Amino acid sequence: MIYYWSFNFHFSMDILQTLTIKYLAGTLMKLNEFNRLTELPDNMEQMPVLFLGHGSPINAIDDNEFSRKWKEIGKTLPTPKAILCISAHWETKGTFVTAMQKPVTIHDFGGFPQELFDFQYPAPGSPELAEETKTIITKTEVGLDEKWGLDHGCWILLKHLYPNADVPVIEFSLNYDHPPQFHYELARDLSSLRKKGVLIIGSGNMVHNLGMVAWEKLNSEEYGYNWAIEANEKMKKYILSNDHKQLINFKSQGKAYNLAIPTPEHYMPLLYTLALKEENEEVTIFNDKIVGGSLSMTSLRIDNN
């Protein structure tokens, strides 16, 4: 009996030691992952910032000038450690980041081919980057979300930029309770992530008025209403002259702007991108076309190249 107890005691101690080792190993792996995101090697480039006009979900599976340009851009970017995407399609009360290990692919649209609904973008998430993002934000409280995933504003772009889905991705929500100036200032809190290998992408459309789309011309050559062209050109002028104040105060820019931005969610990711621009960096404009009369695909890359 004594022997039996002694045997079980040593057996239990062996189990305890094994579990302790596994726990410490798991903790070490998490710390290593955290360090991978928070420690900047001396030879690492600061990541560019992108604003991408994502347009129709069909761009995920269509071979067109926009999707081809996204592929081209992906080949010229430094390889990121992770991606943070600010998508027009995740509006929330409060500010959140996705914090799950395996974000689901969200098909938040209707009326498209089954092929689009069948598509999955199985990129890993990054709870570590979510925690880091929560920590560095001083403008507001940031919640960790386990339910959302990757909506089409995010994955239709990443499908072309990183087709292997091998880069960890988190999404950053848009708090609809706050004005443009709040979002612009909040974005600046994210700047340190660029120096840690994180690619920040704003995904929306500078001109986005679905209620006035000329559907019969949506898949044709470039076509824009006069007001859409006027607003798009004015936005580009302010962007290239670094006049962010006028872009933040978009509601005071007149009728063309009011038609171009009937609701702010597709415009706000542009402000996030511009807020991250540093003084010595340049803006490169691409995919600069208006389709369907009232949707601008105009996109930006910000870096010092």
What's the short version?
This protein is α/β, with parallel strands linked by helices. The chain has 11 helices and 10 strands.
Summarize the structure in words.
By secondary structure, this protein is an alpha/beta fold. 40% of the residues lie in helices and 17% in strands. It has helices spanning 2-38, 65-76, 114-118, 127-136, 152-161, 180-188, 191-194, 226-240, 244-248, 255-260, 268-275; strands at residues 49-53, 82-92, 95-98, 142-145, 169-175, 198-204, 282-286, 290-291, 295-296, 299-303. Strands 5-2-6-1-10-7 form a 6-stranded mixed β-sheet, with helices on both faces. Strands 3-4 form a two-stranded parallel ribbon. The longest helix is centred in the first third of the chain and has 37 residues, at 2-38. The relative contact order is 0.18. Residues 1-13 and 18-35 have low confidence and may be disordered.
